[in-house]
Design goal:
Elements lengths: L1 E6 L2 H11 L2 H4 L4 E6 L9 E2 L7 H10 L4 E4 L2 H5 L2 H7 L4 E2 L3 H8 L1 H10 L7 E4 L7 H8 L3 E5 L8 E4 L2 H12 L11 E5 L4 E9 L4 E3 L4 E2 L2 E3 L3 E4 L4 E4 L7 H21 L6 E9 L5 E7 L6 H5 L7 H9 L14 E9 L22 E5 L2 E4 L2 E4 L3 E9 L3 H14 L5 E2 L10
Parallel strand pairs: 1-2, 1-4, 2-3, 4-5
Antiparallel strand pairs: 6-9, 7-8, 7-9, 10-11, 10-16, 12-15, 13-14, 15-18, 16-17, 18-22, 18-23, 19-22, 20-21
Helix pairs in contact: 6-7
The structure holds adenosine monophosphate and glycine.
Length: 428
């Protein structure tokens, strides 16, 4: 079998590792290709020099090489219709159609869908340049803090929390006059601020049936104690049963997952692939949707995949072939964590091109998944904000998983290395 993986982050490095270690892949002499790949992914895959957004070239490659199955990591190719284009040619692919992916790519669509089908989420109102005058009465209704979210994709940065009128004023100016998110910010939603514990759920579905992977918690802020700017994610742990036990999971299935999948189907946007539900679990143990994404989360995936014991490639194929009903998901009774090594300055300005040393000294109870790295003459250099995900899974405890991770981090070095030292602390 020939499998093509699209993307070049640490999430895709973890997907590559898990795909090639799936019995259905290993036992059939299969080959993995990755477009465009990165030095970590390329340990498992043949690199293909095509950008993940160049859908025509990806499709031609898949047709010429007779690719049997394609797995899409990031949201951008999904948002521009890679699944629709591949399926038109009869190519099998894991992920949602462009119309279904709007659950992530349009906050307005996603919030209106939840409202229409009574899915628990923060109170909200959609705004554009025409109805800005109604914003202050909405704020009077929900009180401060209020959350403002740009409608379109904004690389994880389109969420602004406003604590008072002057925050709102400058936020609206940034969105509509300074256009800091371009067109994505001209439509936005304002919503009530929810409190509680955030959990990420990955739902693998064929549109009808689904399985839920172990809940994870992501650390979104750049600094320890959840201070500073939002990032793509600085670390994660799973299973997050401390916040999302079986009882909460059951509520999430009944009140969120089943209604949303059936709503998408009813609206003619049947959802296949991984649906990421970012949930706020309130003090009363009630799950509310913060956001949906149309793909696996990064860095949660790097930890979550280490807990899967059943054939992962078969799971992805079952989603595309409408066979989730027949798939038996097996999860290890273990504890996994991920800590992201970033370039100092991220998520703002940072330097690239720093030599990374120590990668050869890592014990085999740790995975090093590459994100922003590049390779030159056999040496690895930093090439992005989030550089490497360091991951470990322990059958003993979270303590032992994070001990392995932080011990590996001591060995990996590059100039301006930055990481949070408090990942997983809450479960130790
Ligand atoms: P999003 O991109 O929608 O996931 O938002 C990024 C982060 O902003 C979330 O992970 C939360 O930490 C925070 N956030 C978003 N919406 C809300 C909300 N309604 N209440 C509280 N925090 C929120
Ligand atoms: N970890 C957050 C995300 O993938 O969107």
């Amino acid at each position: 079998m020939k499998v093509l993986l699209i993307g070049n982050g640490a999430r895709e490095n973890a997907l590559a590792w898990k795909i090639v270690n799936s019995p259905s892949f290993k036992n059939s002499g299969s080959v993995l290709y990755a477009a465009p790949g990165n030095p970590g992914i390329n340990k498992f895959a043949n690199p293909v020099n095509i950008a993940s957004t160049d859908i025509q070239s990806l499709k031609n490659f898949a047709l010429n090489e007779k690719i049997d199955f394609t797995v899409v990591g990031p949201e951008i190719p999904l948002s521009i219709g890679i699944v629709d284009e591949f399926e038109k040619e009869g190519l099998k692919i894991f992920g949602p159609s462009k119309a279904a992916a709007e659950i992530e790519t349009s906050k307005v669509f996603s919030k209106e869908l939840m409202q229409k089908y009574s899915v628990p989420t923060a109170k909200f109102k959609a705004f554009n340049t025409e109805n800005l005058g109604e914003l202050s009465s909405f704020i009077d209704e929900v009180n401060y803090p209020v959350v403002i979210k740009a409608d379109g994709l904004a690389a994880g940065k389109g969420v602004i929390i406003c604590n008072d009128d002057s925050d709102v004023e400058s936020c609206i100016k940034d969105l509509t006059e300074n256009k800091i998110f371009g067109e994505a910010g001209l439509n936005f939603v304002a919503e009530q601020f929810l409190t509680g514990n955030e959990v990420s759920l990955f739902i693998i579905t064929d549109g009808e049936d689904f399985v839920v992977l172990p809940p994870a918690q992501d650390y979104k802020r750049i600094f320890e104690e959840d201070k500073g700017k939002n990032t793509g994610g600085m670390g994660a742990f799973t299973p997050a049963v401390k916040f999302c036990n079986d009882e909460v999971l059951k509520k999430a299935e009944e009140k969120i997952i089943k209604p949303v999948l059936s709503a998408l189907k009813k609206e003619g946007r049947n959802y296949k692939g991984c649906l990421y539900a970012g949930l706020m679990i309130t003090e009363e143990k009630e799950p509310f949707v913060i956001e949906f994404n149309c793909r696996f989360g990064d860095p949660e995936t790097q930890a979550v995949l280490t807990l899967i014991d059943s054939d992962f490639l078969e799971l992805l194929m079952a989603s595309s072939e409408n066979k989730i009903k027949d798939y038996s998901l097996k999860i290890k009774n273990a504890f996994a964590g991920c800590v992201v090594l970033a370039s100092l300055g991220y998520p703002d300005e940072f330097e690239k091109g720093k030599l990374i040393s120590g990668l050869e000294n890592i014990d085999n109870n740790v995975h090093v998944f590459h994100a922003g790295t590049s390779e030159m003459h056999g040496k690895i250099f930093t090439n992005g904000g989030r550089v490497i995900s360091v991951v470990s899974c322990s059958e003993k405890s979270f303590n032992s998983a994070f001990e392995n991770i932080y011990c590996a981090i001591e060995k990996i070095d590059f100039e301006n290395k930055y990481f949070r030292r408090d990942i997983g602390k809450i479960v130790l």
